[in-house]
Amino acid sequence: MGRDDKKPPELYYEILHVARDASPQRVRAAYRSLARQWHPDKHPPESRADAEARFKAITEAYEALLDQQENRAVFAAAARDGGGGRASRPPAENVAATAVARSEKKPGGALPCAPPAARAKQVYSACGGRRAFAEFSSYVVRKAPPLERRVECTLEELCTGCRKEVTYTRDVVTKNGLITKKEVTQTIRIKPGMRKGSTVTVEGAGDERPGCLAGDAVFVVSERRHGRFKRLGDDLVLRARVPLVSALTGWHLSFRLLCGDRFRCAFRDEVIFPGYVKVVKGGGMPVAGGEDKGVRGDLVVKFEVVFPDSLTDEQRKGLADILRGCA
């Protein structure tokens, strides 16, 4: 069931992040917490419009649920006064009058100072009307579509993590309700081990639309091709070319890892043959989002033996004499 199919109370509870069976005390506590969080005075000018929209929605939802709970108390009292048997429902005008009277007693209540049209609208909402809610919900639940931007990172940046400043253009709504382009800069955090296609979302930093909450800015990580390493999941693959003589007689391999440390490996008692693979445990990329910090993938070194293009007769004879006894 989508938002538009929900009954008004369901949306009110969702706005305040409380369950349908929440007590008045729980509703009041949720309202106070959200009101403090989204009060416009606590937000910078660039996000104040979003804060005002959220603050208005939270206040509307709280007042509607408070009126609803008070109406239940009115009906319960009327049922008790009506005696045994089926409870008689009080006339609608009595319920409306009670709702208005109770609203006037609330601290900061808006009814006494509101114009007649506003009072009629609020009384209609307190009595279970849908017209005011339709206007309210259509404003609250809409949000501009997300704005996607690509962020290119090197393997070194994805390995160690970094902060990237991204400059992009977004739509903003002027005071006159017109949409204009504005260039903004956001600093986003790239966590160690993030992969190509990972996203970083900044709430409310996307495009603005009249009558809507600002959309989110979604930054999609892309990976710049590396000159030495190739990434496969959390593993790194390195291809090393070895001359034939070194593959047979011994070889020393040395290079820098992405983190900056130097890796050294000596092959003295091993013969490196075509397709030879050496796996260095923990020498790959950090595992992003893993339960155990410090877990890394593997470094896979794949060796390619480089054969000479030609040999002299003397070289052939010498190799034959040397290798004749080898299996």
UniProtKB/TrEMBL annotation:
Q: What is a single cellular component term in the Gene Ontology annotation?
A: endoplasmic reticulum
> Which is a Pfam family this sequence falls into?
DnaJ
InterPro entries, alphabetically? DnaJ_C, DnaJ_domain, DnaJ_subfamily_B, HSP40/DnaJ_pept-bd, J_dom_sf
Query: Which of UniProt's keywords are assigned here?
Result: Chaperone
Boundaries of each J domain copy? 11-79
Q: What is this protein called?
A: J domain-containing protein
Look up and give the organism this protein is from: Urochloa decumbens
Source lineage: Eukaryota, Viridiplantae, Streptophyta, Embryophyta, Tracheophyta
